[in-house]
Amino acid sequence: MAGREAAVLVQEPITPSDSNPHHLIPNTNPLESIVAVDEEIPIIDYAKLFSDDLDERSTALQHLSKACEEYGFFNLVNHPVPDNVIECTLKKIADHFRETEAEEKQKYLKKSSQDTVVFGLNSYACENREFAKMVVHPENHCPPDHCYREALEEYMKGMEEVKLGLARAISKILGQEETYIEDVFDLKRGFDVASLNVYPPCFNSKSFMGLPTHTDPGFCVSLVQDVNGGLRILTHQGKWISVSIPPSAILIQLGDHLEVLTNGKFKSHLHYVMVAKNKVQRISLATLHGPSLDTFVSPAPEFVDEHRPPAYRAMTYRQALETNGNDPIDMTTALEHLRLCEGV
Ligand SMILES: O=C(O)CCC(=O)C(=O)O
Ligand SMILES: [Fe+2]
């Protein structure tokens, strides 16, 4: 998740493709000039990953393997979180941000490195977003007087099942025991932080950026939104995709620490949020599911050999989150420091 120090990617604009002229945006900034395509991203059927029909299960696991290796993100459908729970959680988050006085919100401005709930309002060139971040696992620190608390609890109950289910399925496609990831990341005590993001419509923002380019730490990120539009992800092939999340789907993005554990087999990826085309406010709920803070994460022996030496530094999850003086609640990436050499 982008923290205070999140770096804005400066890269060459990708050459506009003739087939997508309507995706061109004014060339006033390297990121703004990037052409993103409205391309379908992989869809993974959660229920089929656990199907009793062996053929169906094995096909679904193959799809998951391809999605993790070639993309690192996918839309998850047919999962155990009911639609009405997602809708209700997003609606109550919107109600809360709209109805809560600024003074009340500011009670949660960052005070200490131990904070478990933090509010922020960023209106800069590189970020236009109001947010609340809170630790939701192993304990839920959502303030009891916030009207979305009950809905968020219900949503997180479902997401816990999804997280453990995905950990089992991903362990299998890595050729490991079902509980492999759950055990090495100590997911039952995993440090999960929810980020409640409110992006203004473009006419209220200071620039076209909602959130600067970043990767996210941890095992994986789950994301739901109320209106479509704005999230852009860089594929491993160097193409920016404008991500569309169908109603009922949960976007899953692989995190930095799965990349470290698998020694680069399953990579995290850069993404950012644009508000340039937003006619209305957009709300997203991104939950970063991580190892427990004291888990020591390093490339596992299963993914290291003479042809693939360890490409990442080993450190605890807490040390990675505290890199550069950040605090765990900031959930800032440390991938640059974790990588032992460029370009892995
Ligand atoms: O709001 C979004 O679409 C993305 C949010 C995000 O990347 C994050 O909170 O880390
Ligand atoms: Fe993110």
UniProtKB/TrEMBL annotation:
SUPFAM superfamilies named in the record: Clavaminate synthase-like
Domain Fe2OG dioxygenase per the UniProt entry, residue ranges: 190-291
Gene3D superfamilies: B-lactam Antibiotic, Isopenicillin N Synthase, Chain
Keyword set, alphabetical order: Iron, Metal-binding, Oxidoreductase, Vitamin C
Annotated InterPro entries: DIOX_N, IPNS-like_FE2OG_OXY, IPNS-like_sf, Oxoglu/Fe-dep_dioxygenase_dom, Plant_2OG-oxidoreductases
Gene Ontology molecular function: L-ascorbic acid binding; metal ion binding; oxidoreductase activity
Annotated signal sequence range: none
Pfam family, any one: DIOX_N
Protein family according to the UniProt entry: Belongs to the iron/ascorbate-dependent oxidoreductase family.
PANTHER family (alphabetical): OXOGLUTARATE/IRON-DEPENDENT DIOXYGENASE
Protein name according to UniProt: Fe2OG dioxygenase domain-containing protein
High-level lineage: Eukaryota, Viridiplantae, Streptophyta, Embryophyta, Tracheophyta
